[in-house]
Design brief:
Order of helices and strands: HHEEHHEEEEHH
Largest sheet: 6 strands, mixed
CATH topology: Nuclear Transport Factor 2, Chain: A
Number of helices: 6
Radius of gyration: 15 Å
Helix content: 25-40%
Strand content: 35-45%
Strand order of the largest sheet: 2-1-6-5-4-3
Oligomer: single chain
Structural class: alpha+beta
Distance between the termini: 40 Å
CATH architecture: Roll
Shape: globular
CATH class: Alpha Beta
Length: 135
């Protein structure tokens, strides 16, 4: 999956999902979705990713087995440039991935929405959206 993301083949990344697989983002904030249901929602979500973030390297990657044979914990760090600003970014991720029949059945991505918004030059908008929710 990481190799496909580096070459920006988002359709191939989406094809790794089971037709009914999910992608969950428990820490999502603002307008970011908290859950995507099914391969086609994942595909739609990923379609614009290369227009937003130019991931150039995965600086660290470790895969840790769990006590469930179909589930692993993946820790990784992506670096690159934000397309809109040209600024470099470094984002850390922890993913809990469950596979079924060789495809992703459940993908829980624990990323930091503040770091992602800052990298994209959208931190003020994210904070504003959070403050409006609290009002």
């Amino acid at each position: 999956m990481v190799d496909l993301m580096l070459v920006k083949d988002m359709n191939a990344v989406a094809d790794l999902w089971a037709p009914d697989g999910t992608a969950e983002f428990p820490f999502a904030a603002g307008s970011s979705p908290r859950i995507l249901r099914g391969r086609e929602e994942v595909r739609a979500y990923l379609a614009r990713y290369p227009e937003l973030m130019d991931m150039r390297e995965v600086a660290a990657l470790s895969v840790r087995p769990t006590d469930q044979a179909d589930t692993v914990v993946v820790e990784w760090t992506a670096t690159g440039r934000t397309v809109a600003t040209g600024r470099p970014y470094r984002l850390d991720y922890i993913v809990v991935l469950t596979a079924r029949d060789g495809l992703i059945a459940r993908f829980r991505d624990y990323w930091n929405p503040l770091s992602a918004a800052a990298a994209a030059g959208k931190l003020a908008g994210l904070i504003d959206s959070l403050e409006r929710k609290d009002a």
